[in-house]
Every structure is written in C-alpha cells, then in structure tokens.
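Example complex used in Figure S2.
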Amino acid sequence: MARILRMGMVGGGPGAFIGEVHRKAARMDGQIEIVAGVFSTDPEKSRATGRALGLAPDRVYTSYEQMAEQEAKLPADQRIDFVAVTTPNSSHFPIAKTFLEAGFHVMCEKPMTLTVAEAEELEKVVRNSGKVFGLMHNYTGYPMVKLARDLIRSGELGPIRKVVAIYPQGWLAQPIESESKQAAWRTDPRLAGAGCLGDIASHAENLAEYITGLKISELSADLTTFVPGRRLDDDVNCLLRFENGARGVLHASQISVGEENGLAIWVYGEKGGLEWHQEDPNHLRVTSLDGPEKQYFRGNPYVAAKSPAAARGTRTPSGHPEAFIEAFANTYVNFADTIRALEEGRAPSELENDFPKASDGVRGMKFIAAVVRNAAGQDKWTRL
Amino acid sequence: MARILRMGMVGGGPGAFIGEVHRKAARMDGQIEIVAGVFSTDPEKSRATGRALGLAPDRVYTSYEQMAEQEAKLPADQRIDFVAVTTPNSSHFPIAKTFLEAGFHVMCEKPMTLTVAEAEELEKVVRNSGKVFGLMHNYTGYPMVKLARDLIRSGELGPIRKVVAIYPQGWLAQPIESESKQAAWRTDPRLAGAGCLGDIASHAENLAEYITGLKISELSADLTTFVPGRRLDDDVNCLLRFENGARGVLHASQISVGEENGLAIWVYGEKGGLEWHQEDPNHLRVTSLDGPEKQYFRGNPYVAAKSPAAARGTRTPSGHPEAFIEAFANTYVNFADTIRALEEGRAPSELENDFPKASDGVRGMKFIAAVVRNAAGQDKWTRL
Amino acid sequence: MARILRMGMVGGGPGAFIGEVHRKAARMDGQIEIVAGVFSTDPEKSRATGRALGLAPDRVYTSYEQMAEQEAKLPADQRIDFVAVTTPNSSHFPIAKTFLEAGFHVMCEKPMTLTVAEAEELEKVVRNSGKVFGLMHNYTGYPMVKLARDLIRSGELGPIRKVVAIYPQGWLAQPIESESKQAAWRTDPRLAGAGCLGDIASHAENLAEYITGLKISELSADLTTFVPGRRLDDDVNCLLRFENGARGVLHASQISVGEENGLAIWVYGEKGGLEWHQEDPNHLRVTSLDGPEKQYFRGNPYVAAKSPAAARGTRTPSGHPEAFIEAFANTYVNFADTIRALEEGRAPSELENDFPKASDGVRGMKFIAAVVRNAAGQDKWTRL
Amino acid sequence: MARILRMGMVGGGPGAFIGEVHRKAARMDGQIEIVAGVFSTDPEKSRATGRALGLAPDRVYTSYEQMAEQEAKLPADQRIDFVAVTTPNSSHFPIAKTFLEAGFHVMCEKPMTLTVAEAEELEKVVRNSGKVFGLMHNYTGYPMVKLARDLIRSGELGPIRKVVAIYPQGWLAQPIESESKQAAWRTDPRLAGAGCLGDIASHAENLAEYITGLKISELSADLTTFVPGRRLDDDVNCLLRFENGARGVLHASQISVGEENGLAIWVYGEKGGLEWHQEDPNHLRVTSLDGPEKQYFRGNPYVAAKSPAAARGTRTPSGHPEAFIEAFANTYVNFADTIRALEEGRAPSELENDFPKASDGVRGMKFIAAVVRNAAGQDKWTRL
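Predicted assembly (1536 residues):
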C-alpha cells in the first residue's frame, strides 16, 4: 500500500483560484493529505483557510520561512513531505529555494521564477538538494497529451515539420485589474514579471516542447499591450524555429474576446499530423498520408496500446469525460510516486518520472526572455 | 466552517468502477472523509481495499449488517454519518434499508431497487427514518444540466412539446460477459434485474424528467437482446408521452458499436430548444424562435445569472473543463449540505436540496417496469 | 461527347423553392438545358418565369396537359427529353402519369403520390411506358451517403442491428401558414396529403432503407399536431423493425425550434457503426469494434477506393465543400446517364442506375400509410 | 429580365480543376452561358473540351490572342461579354491585358500576376479600359464571410485588435509534382511565381483584409520548402501588423498532413470576436464581452437583417447547406450584375459591386513580394 503523503501549501487563501485546484487535485486519489500551510500574507485569512480545511491550528503559519523552519523540526512521521507553492510568480523562487534547502520536496506553480538567472539558480538548488521538484505545467498531465507525445516518440508521424501552438483567452479584454484579484496580480509587473507571455504563452511553449520532444532554437516575436493603462503585455505572437529544422507559430492572447482557455496544438510530421484542444481534452485527432482521419478517445484499449502513460493517467472508462482537475491530479500522482520511489531507494520508473521539472522551468524562462528581447529589438531572430 | 462528514461504503472493492468514482468525488472538496466500509463479499479483498484507503482495520467489516450494527455503537463523533451503497443492483434495497433503519443517511447507486414494490417500500423507509437519502443519478449533477432545467423552469423555452433522450453505448456489442466483471453482473438477471434498460435507459428517463420538470405518463417500447446468449436486454427504444401532452423518444443501447457514453438530450418548447451531451458536458446549446443559436459555456457570469445551481456546481473558471467526477461530487456536496442542514436544525435551501431522492428511484423503477410490460405485450401504450 | 438533354418543368414558378433548386442542379454540369415549362397555374406568372429563364415564349405552356401534348408533337431533336415535376404533392401523380404516357421520361418530386394505390398504379405506368422515372429523394445523392451504403454493402459493419434516422426542423413551430407559401401548401391536407410525415419523415425512411439496404417490416408510431389550427401532423415519432431483425427509431419534426434541416442517420452493425448529418454532408463517421473512430472526408482516394459511387458524385477536391445542390445534381446526372444509356440501346451501369425510382415511391407511400394507420389505432405494430 | 451574358474561357482544359469550377459556378444560376474558349495550349485538347461543352466549333480557338481578335469582330449580340482566365499564374497578366484592351470584361484567377509591377500595370489597364475586371478570390463570395465583414463594418465587434488567418493544406506533403498536373504547375517557379505563398497564403491575406476592412501595413515572415527537390515554398508563417495598430498571425502550408482546405479566420475586436472556417462555411461564430456565444447559420432572417450581402448570396433555406461552387457563383453574379449595370448606364449598387478587383490583386502581389523580401533578409519588419 502506498504511503499517504503529507502536503503543505504556500498560497491558496480566500479568493485564490489555482491553490484550490491544487488541493482538489491532490485530494482526489486519496494518496495525499493537506496538513499545513500559510495561505495568505494576512494571518487572519490564512487561519480562516486552515480552519476550512480542517487543519490543526498549529500547522497554519504566518510566513513561509516560519513554516519551513517549524515543519523541519517536527518528527519525520508528522512533518510535511512536500510543499505546493501557489503564490504569485515573484515569490516562487524564494519560497521554493527555502523549502528545498530545508529538506522538503516542492511542487511549484509556473512560471518557475521571474528571470532566467533565478531559474538556473533554482535548478542548481534542486540538484544539490536531492529533493523532488515538480513544476505545475498541468496541461502535460492530460492523457491525450501523453498519447500525442508517445505517437510522435514512436515515429508514427515521422520527423516533425511544423508546430502550431495557440492559447487565446479573452478575460482581460477590458481593464478589470481594479476589480479582480486574479487580474490584478497577473498584470502587475512586480508580482507577475510578464503578462500574457508568462501566464499562458509559456504553457503553449511547454506543451509544444513536451509533445514534440523538440527544443525551440530561435524565435521572432511581437508583444503587445492593447488595453489602455495595462502595464504588461496582453497579446503575444511568435514565429518559431526548432532545433531539427521544424518551423512553428505560437500565439497567445488575453484580449481575444469570447475565447476562454483555448490552449490547442497542431503538429505535422512527414507522415502524419495531430491536433488537440484543451477545452475538449478527451479527444486527439490524428491524420496520416493516406487514410481517413482518426479520432482517439481517452480510455480505450487502443490508446493504452500506444501510450501506457495515457492509460496510467486515466480514471474513468471511455465516454466518461475527465478534465482539468484530473490533469492536475495526474501531475501530482507522478510527482508523489517519484517521492515514494526515492523513499524506497529505487529509481522512479519512466512513467512515474513523467512530470515537469526545473529544467522545464529554465526553458520557460528562456522562452519568456527571448520573446521580450526580440520584441523590443530590430533583429529578426533571437536564440533561446 | 463546515463539519467534515464521515462516510462509509458498501461495495467498491478491487476491480469496481463506480465505487472508486464515489470515493474520488467524495474526497475532492475536502468535506467528506472515508472512514469505514465493507468493500467486497470476500473479506480479504475488503481488507486490502481498506488498507489501500488508509482505513483503521477495525472499520473494515465483513458484512453490511455487521457494519451497520457496529458503527451504530460507536460514539457520535466517530461513527459514520452516511453510507454509500455501490454494490450491484440487487442488494441496493436491503443495504439501504438496513442503514436507514440503523440511523444512517444513505447515498445509493441507481437503479434504486429491483422492483417497484421495493422502491415504494424504500421510499417509506426513508420517510419514516427521517434520514437523508440520495440516489446517484450523477448526470443531474452537471452544471449545464442544472442550467437546462433552470432555463425551462423560468419559461425561457415556453411550454415543452418534444423531448429526445438517448443513451447509446457500444461496449457490450460482443458477449464479453465472461471476461469483464463489469459486464458480468450487469447482464446477470439475478444481480441487475434489467439490462441496458436499468443500467442506462433509466438515466435517460431521469435526465428527461429532471430537466423538463415533466413526468412521463405513458410509453410504448421495444426491448431487444442482440447478443446471442445474453440474458438481459441490450437495446431499448421507446416512444414517450408526457403528462402535459409533450411527446418524446427515448433510446438506449449497449450494442451501438463505437458509442462510448453517449447520453444526450434535446428539449423543444414553444419558444426555444436546448441540447446537451454528456461527453461534452461544459456546453449547452440553446435555440430560440428568432435569433442566432446560443452556446452557453460553464463558468460564465451569464450562466450564473440564469442558474445559481449551475454556478454552485462550478469549481473552475470557464474554459477549464469539468467533467464526470465533478458531477458526482456536486451530488455529494448537495447531499452533504442537506445532512448538515438537518444537523443544524434548519431546512436545507433549495440549492442544497437539489439531488436525486427516493422519489426519483420510484419513478425509475416504474419506468423500467412499464417498458418491460409494454415490450412484452400487444398494447400500444402502457401507463407508468 | 454526351448529348445535352432537354428538360421541361412543371412547377417552380415565382416564390417556389424546390423548382429553382432543380434548375440549378440540372444546369450545373452543362449536360441538361431547360427548354420548356408550365411554371404556375397563373399563366402570367408562368410566362414571367419562362422569360427569366430565357425560354422561347412558345415553350411556356398554360397547363401540363397542353405541354405534354404540344411537346410530343415537336420534332425529336427539339422536344423535351424529360419533365421535372416540382408541384405540390397532390398533382405529382396525374402529371407524372400524363408525361410518361406521352412518351417522356420523368423526374418527380417526393412524396411520389398521395396514396399507396396511386403509387402502385404509377409504378405500373412507368413499367409499361419503358421510360425512365426518377424520384427526387435528393439526400441519397450525397457522396457520403453513397459511401455509407457501400461500406454496409461490403460487410464492413457486419449485419445491421440498429438504425436511428432523424429529421428535426423548427420552421413550423408557429402557425405561419397564412404568411408563407411554402408553409401553406405543406400544411394543406388537400395539397400535401401528410404533413411532417410526408414532407420529411419520408426522407428519413428513404435514407434508412437506401443506406442499409434493408426494408422496414413494421412500425409503431405517434403522430402529433402541436400548432393550434394546423390541419396536418407536425411531429412524427416511430419505432421501427426491419426485415432482418434490426430495430430502429425514426423521428421527424417541424416544431423543433432551432433545428433547420437536421436529417441525420446512425447505423450500427455487429462490427461497426456509422453516422452522417445532412448539414455537414462532406463527412462520414465510421466506428469499429477495436480501433479509433474514423472520419471519412469526401474527395479523398480512400473514399473512392471504397465507393466508386461516392467518387462519381464528387466535383471538387477534398476540403472544398460540396452541398445540397450538388446532391440534387448527382441525382440528375445518374438519371440523365440512364436516359442516355436507353438511347444508346445499352443497359445503364450500376453507377448510372443509382437514383431513386418508382419502387422507392411505393415504399414511401406504404411507410406514410402505415404510420397514419398505426398512430390512429390501438395496435402496437403495423406492417408496411 | 436580366440579359444572359456570354462567357469565353482561357484555360480549363482536360484535367483542369479550377476551370471547371468556374464553368459550374457560371452556369448555376442560368444567367451566364459559355460560348467560346481556348481551353488548352494543345489544340486537339481544346477542341475536345469545346465539344464536351457543346460549343460551336468556330468558337474554339487555338490561342487567346486569336480568340480576342476574332471575338471582337463578331456582332455585338454574338460575341462574348467577358472572358474567364483560368490558366496558370504566369499567363494571367498577358491574357487579361489582351482581352481588356480588346474591349472585353475579364474575370481572372488569382494571384493576379507574377509581380507587383505587372499588377500595378494591369490595374492601370483596367482603369483605362473602362471594363469590369473581377479577381476570383472566391472565398469572399461565401455569405457568412460577407456577414462577418458586415458585422465588423457596423461596429458590432468594436475596433479590431487581433486577426488570425490560416490556410493549412497537406496535399503536397510528398513530392507528387511528377504525378499530378495540379501539383506540377503550382510548384514550377516559371508558371506559378510563388508556391504555397501565392496559391493559398494570398487567399488568407485577401480574406483578412476583406473581412476586417483593414490593410496590412507590415509583416515578418518565415518561408520554407520542406519537401526535398521542391523549387518553391510549401510553408508560410507570418506576423502581421495592420494600419490601425491591430496585430495578427497568418500561416499557410501545403505540408500539413491531413489538412484539406483549411482556410479559417478569427477576428477579435474590443467588443467581440468572430470565427469562420471554409470547410464549414454555413456557420459563423460570434462572441461578445458578456453573453453566450452566438452561432449564425446562413439563410436565416437574423442573418439577412445584419447583412443584405449575405442574404443576396443565399440560394437555399437555412439547413440546406451551400458550399464552394455557390461561393464562386456569388462572385460571378455580382461581377455579371456590375457588367449589366454598365450596359444599362447606371452605377452598380454596393451589393452588385461586391467582388474582388484589380486593387485586391495589387494588394495580393504586394503581400507576396513583402513576404519573399522579408523571409530572405534580416530585417524584422517589411512594409507592404
């Protein structure tokens, strides 16, 4: 029987979106329990969240430094196994570093840091700590994304020629920064670092590299702020070139009125193509040179045959849809099983080890930095 | 802060499908914890499941009767608040009855019983017990189903004229009874009572009555067993008449090759229509006499404005899809809040009280009985 | 080089819908020219239409009897080869009979006649005339419908078990009879004979029998008139049984608000299934027991390989959509090539001979009669 | 009554694709008849096509120069009114110029010429000729494209911020130049000038400018040839900037395996957005800041109310799909009515005058030239 892991959380107080998603995802499979946290910089709000979660009052802390210190002093069978970092971007780096150095595994929201330098330093901290670090690029947790990766890995599409990754949203088409907590921090340069670029374009970048197994080598970008008064970009358009010669397009937006969370990807190889939409996550369209188009549906034996990773990330039979929270939960399952493997003194299997890591965070920060630099200059191409 | 309820379970052992869905759904929101159970008729399998769930060994029982008796003896702050019954159909009735009479609330899988007589008796038991009884017609837990109901309730579609409810599946197109545990009990007359009719056609019936607020008054049916050697029906086709004069069609199938879990409904009123598909649950199509068709997407303010129940059943922002397990969880949330209301000595709100009950179970059994009777005879119409 | 056929028309005057579709379809491929007609019972309207069509004034007649008589007197290289009958239902029989007996081929709108007796008589007239008779069940002209038929014919789906054919429309949800010419005659018992049943349910029946190659043996039906004051049915629901033991559902409606021309069909065999929608006519979904679902798209080599008939009915490459008028035109092409074969003294090929005939008209009238009889009585099943 | 126009054609011999589409489109409405042509550089093939079309032998010419000269000598009521130029790109300019200068109206395939200089010269020739010149950017003939334009024109979407126009195809993913006539000339620099860029990217450019009413001011581009041995580009990716500050992405491809004719566009304004797909041409998705998404379907009164141009381009009721050939035909109808207006000595109405012209051809050639120049250089942005 798998040991139930103890989770702490930094962030996720009243009005938070992503912290509660982390909690639901962590709870879903009964293999992780939430036992400690600092949920807000306001101690009263933090305590209120702790109470709502049924935590012991002495496990709700007033600062993440205090939490790291106090938890480290608890007996090994009581203290948290890992912490989930779900605060605004600017504090990811210090919090993650603190907990890693205090001997805890870390699951961190993306983007990993504010700068490439921080990202590279954190990658070193992770390496030196010997701890497990997960980066919540949750979209790679979807089973059909894993199938897509595995179809490409197996050569079914042939060498990849073209990638189109898009992430349109419309919720920031108007200046709602003053009304919405979610909008406020995401458009604050100090807290978020980058706007649309860091919040969602980086997901598209991560998805493209994850599915294709290719690295973006250079890009050309146009970065725009459409909403008057906004301090960060709300629209991103990029031409991509990949290390193998493949070409691509990536665009993301927060001003595409009517789009909700439209992350989608198309990949074309010499022999076939595929298409996946986050809002319809249980399907994968696959094309070939000479037959009718195929629609793969999650949960079928023919999916499992091509992708054990997709099968592993499946909880319900085909036709019983799974969605966003389950994709998060899949990332947690693999992260947790890798922690358990470490405890058990064995190497995690490839399936267990399948979750985004600090190296993905470094790639993400390099992508963000390259877009910012290219968009500000006159050079056509900027290398990552 | 809401009290975390203690849940017991009967059923849901190794290889079970729906029991584990109940557990994931119950856990998701952190308001229910699983503390006891009898998971299999095989005590060793039951204990193994209990261990995997992290239960105290003395809360894993060898029979439901023992469980009801022992739990009732525990102190009020330790014993289960309710039991989830997730066994094959034939045992729903005795188990539910036993726990209700022992003073526990019950969440029961559908179909509620094997016969109308049992259903009516169980309805009485519920009434006499003063306990909360929930019937897991999970599809009514989807937010867009609640929006559909509320649009009709508000008169937006006008008086209803026509209803088409379908539930095609293909997984039993071949005689897999001998290989699949799920197939075996569902095609065993002794355990399941009815085949496709009880397993899925009854969901379509429940959905149609829930969304429209109308009762089916009479029906004409064709019940077929296509797979040689199968002992129960695997295909159901019905003409429906509703008490208000509306007409309808209901069909369900387990031999529709390639269909997965295709529950869907179309409702047409004098002023508008709507369409919803379980496999694409975050959308609702709505039509009117004179404008472009509208697509409602879960999680938007315009949904909340029309349906507080849909908003209440929403965990993630629009575009971040929710699915099957969340719909289950919504049924649990309302069931649990109604239990809490009872504890607090107040009437549950209409929103809290929105989950299927014993009366729905009686309707379902009457529907099943009417289909069986009509299909076997020469009369064109059979009243429910 | 194919001889360009000369077409006459009865019906299709100002305000007509289907007559103009016949003309566009007939013209499209440059193999048929319109040279004569009586387009309206009002001679002035008829002449106006003739002028707009560029007809010689002496080829615009005041009655169909006159037209048949006068055209027959013209030299063989001037007179019409065939007549298209596009009047309201009640006059199909006398007009078709008149022209057949005058030695002309006939393309007739459906339903073929008002009664089974007329239909059977017309079938005899056709046989005795030695002329070519086409019945415009245009939906069988779609290439993907022909592919569907050919996949079933070849056994790819295995023996057929279940058929669902639907034809929802919403345009008559309100009493627009007084405002709309199209609505007026279609709801007039004297002109139309049957309402929704004859206008569109009969298309669904024809499509089901064409695609499956099976005959409906018996049915149970519910026929309703929802709109107050309407004199014919506007909603049809049927249970179907086919001669091979397959079961089915057929429903059609003119009061399904928001539905436009939603003819669609699902067929399930022992080994596979298929689904086709008239409003998305270039696609065919095909399922099997064990692989991912396939989407066939018109115009591809893999379609041609399975269905020469689909390839023959294709004018543009894949991705360049074809639609309603082209399906009509396909029916005309086969009808015209069959006429040419007759002229050339050879049997038409199977591909040429692939268009609906008087025998389909008889089936349609039997279907209509069976629905009316069953709906009015207490018997559960009525044989066709 | 409208005078039936006489059409000549250059191109469209055996094996041609687009020439036959022009003919079907021109014939469909009975307002244009084909009377003359030179269909191939091979006189025998040309004569064969003429025979198949039922032309008088003396109206089938051996060269376009001869045709222009001879037709000009015919009496005014016999000679062609206009010529359709459907040859490979390289001959559009000389042919169009010749016929314009001989006093004929011209309908020309796109791209208009091989160079910007030719395009600008042809624009002058058109102006000086006083004749009507149409450029067959057929996709702007779709009714829902006209609705899209009219919604934007009316301000319903607010000022435009972002445009995404894509045109993926996969038919040239392999080197089929040697087998396919269509592929051969399209990949021949001498005949086609540009590859994917001229063949389809220019359609995306035209569609974007037509729908938004905005001009592209500058662009950054990546032009690739993936298939070994191919002499022209088969993949195009561009960042776009529009004169009003809007940003955009345009990509097109002939190596996107499985894509057929995937022209599509998304436009986002301050108040709303829209989406249209050529392969599903009867629908237009429209979004707004605060309501459910709307789906406009061709043929409805609510479409006509917003776009008389869409209504004018509609032949069948809603739900009876129209497609590619009808869009061509709509371009012909407006072109022909503008010719008739000229004959009648009146200015064509705005609805009649709604077809692509020489100015669109100049824009297209500037777009092509800018992409080629930018892709070959180091500058980030190139002005059109």
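Chain D has 13 helices and 14 strands. The first strand of chain D starts at residue 5 and ends at 11.
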